[in-house]
Known about the structure:
The chain has 440 residues and is an alpha+beta fold. The chain folds into two domains: 20-216 and 335-427, Zn peptidases (Aminopeptidase), CATH 3.40.630; 219-329, Alpha-Beta Plaits. The chain has helices at residues 5-52, 61-73, 140-156, 178-184, 243-261, 300-320, 340-353, 411-427, and strands at residues 77-82, 86-92, 95-105, 124-127, 130-133, 162-170, 196-205, 209-210, 214-217, 219-228, 232-233, 270-277, 284-285, 288-297, 324-329, 336-338, 358-359, 379-387. Helix 3 packs across helix 8, helix 5 (243-261) packs antiparallel against helix 6 and helix 7 (340-353) packs across helix 8 (411-427). The longest helix has 48 residues, at 5-52. The protein is elongated and about 80 Å long. 45% of the residues are buried. One zinc ion binds at residues 138, 140, 173, 200.
Amino acid sequence: MPASPRAVRHLALAACVGLPVLAQAQDFDKLIDARLPAVMPKVVAWRRDIHEHPELSFEEVRTAALVAAHLKSLGLEVTTGVGRTGVVGVLRGGKPGPVVALRADMDALPVTEQVDLPFRSRAKARWQGQDVGVMHACGHDNHVAILMGAAEVLAGLRAQVPGTVKFIFQPAEEGLGGAKAMVTDGALAAPTPSAIFGLHVWPNRVGTIAVKPGPFMAAAGNFHIVVKGRQTHGSSPWKGVDPIVVASQIVLGLQTIASRQVDVTYQPSVITIGAINGGNRSNIIPDSVVMQGTLRTFDDGMRADIAARIRRTAEDIARAGGATAIVTVDEGGLVTANDTSLTERMLPTLRRAAPAGVGAIPPVTGSEDFPVFTRDLPGIFFFLGVTPKDRDPLTAPANHSPLFFADEGALETGVRAMSALALDYLRNPLPPRKPGTAGG
Ligand SMILES: [Zn+2]
Ligand SMILES: [Zn+2]
């Protein structure tokens, strides 16, 4: 469809207004690029060091010490122990302006690394009563090194920085509530940022950036079902109530919620039962069965609706079999949604930062706790491609795999993007908005 004359006038006006802004942005780009050759070898070294010494959630003591020492050496105001092992650094620029935050998560996973690297992790730890290997299988080592690099770039430009940059190094992103712990401890308190940016390494072509306005990563919520029957001998089930058969029916019944009961054209949803425990012998019907599951949704109303359906389905199937089901559905996490107007505003910055290209991303049923930071301020969370050129991102081992591998060629794009987002936003911020009016 051809653009209307009015739309053409609007575009022409935007182009005229945009010219001086763009020139300034490109000036910032030159300043950033001039610092990268000195900073990038350090970023690569930090990333390898952190990769070789991964730490589980809320145990990021060594990583936090490395970060804090670096930020202090740059002359930033540094607070440690924010949200237990988190670190916050504040860089006050030489020119007046707003406050912007950049966030990196620091924790690793109970995964034994199988990638053959000179800096492969050999770390071990205790996790839920078991001895486990520890690996940066989600790539947070890259996030920490990139943000340390951006801090060095921006500290080197302090005199030209038009405002304040807050660096948030978060612990325990992997399901243990590190973002919430940091916010509770005042990570967003004075100086309070008016926008926040974060990134995640992802199986896409190395150095590319993928970003999407609006909701794109699911809210994750766990649920727990205890099916109570009545114990009896396996040879005479009619003398008791078999919770294993009832639990099996509940598993199948729950699958009809996403496939038969909610509007599949509105937003996707996933219900998975990941653990079933009950019984310990072939010929004894146990008293009860315990099930654990996860629910992924992209809309708060849909999440509440599905939670009610999970409860009803489990309770009523149990009742039909003469058993009872006790259902607990966690409040759950938040949907990761990029503020629409902020994404539009910062897209040119991301395009300039990523010569390999910027693309869109489809919704991801994985989840993040970044949206804890964006409850009261706009933010953008984007994916940085780390799949080597000779591999297919569709078949490359994904995040959390013991074979997950991040190509270091993406680090420079990450440092450039985070530095440029901070500078461009400070120069051209969004107008303030009322708390609680989340965008996207
Ligand atoms: Zn992860
Ligand atoms: Zn992650």
